[in-house]
Amino acid sequence: xxxxxxxxxAALLALGAVGLTALSACAARPSRxxxxxxxxxxxxxxxxxxxxxQPSGAPTAVPIHSPASAGPPRHPDPSTxxxxxxxxxxxxxxxxxxxxxxxxxxxxxxxxxxxDTDGAARIALxxxxxxxxxxxxxDSALIExxxxxxxxxxxxxxxxxxxxxxxxxxxxxxxxxxxxxNHGTAHVPLSVTGRAAYDIPGTGSAREALDEVWGNHxxxxxxxxxxxxxxxxxxxxxxxIAVGLVRALGEQPVGFSVNGxxxxxxxxxxxxxxxxxxxxxxIVLAHMNQPSSGTAAGMLRAIGDLRARGVRFVHVDA
Length: 318
Description:
Blueprint: H1 5-16, H2 85-90, E1 100-101, E2 122-129, H3 140-149, E3 153-157, H4 159-164, H5 166-173, E4 178-182, H6 206-224, E5 230-231, E6 238-239, H7 240-248, E7 252-253, E8 258-259, H8 268-275, E9 283-287, H9 295-308, E10 312-314
Parallel strand pairs: 2-3, 2-9, 2-10, 3-4, 5-7, 8-9
Antiparallel strand pairs: 1-6
Helix pairs in contact: 1-5, 1-6, 3-9, 6-7, 8-9
């Protein structure tokens, strides 16, 4: 299912040449000045036609249903044209968010199947790669430890982190031990009103929220040869309208039930302790972009502790 190495190399080289500068929760705090809206496919994909050049008969509005009752995300047919982002934004025009945070209907915070058929508890380890001036590092000790222990994990990659780590990204997306998720284009909270988390302003409109998801969706589609199916917003914060927009683009919003490393600020001992609280069905959040943190040492010890309890590690989408 993966595209050939030449196509992947071309995509990675294009990403590396971009020089994205937006800041993230893993970087210095950004300015509150309004951000210009980036084209969702401007990084490595050809520009999407503007609304004025859409073919006649293109939809003008697409209703976004409540994420609590929407069922599985709608996966666009890859043989058809890209989704009309303007139409999706128009479909929620005039709606006001009613909820905000990391635990909303429609966000997957635990596994659908917490136990294997033999009764073994299942836990998903997830690692964010955020990018930005202070978030572009690579925790090789962590990833090499996972590989040595043969522990599957789900990696959420941001566009800027990929651009700063092109060779590593190529290796990771080609390793079946890892499942790859979308961690956004600029790594910001997903909002339709600009709502902030940790003093980081979120996307300021429905269209900006769609761009934040779709820009990196297209990057990852080219890198791994198929569309990504999982999305985690920068800071893991969403409003309820943004959750519906992610699902309308065919991706499942993913949160967490265990904060494993406190944004890569915990000591190794605290990481070990926090990850050790995970129970059957837990989705553990940690980071793979801060090599000087306690994440690697604490996580690898916690993995040993959990395995001693009979835990089985799986991908979020397993």
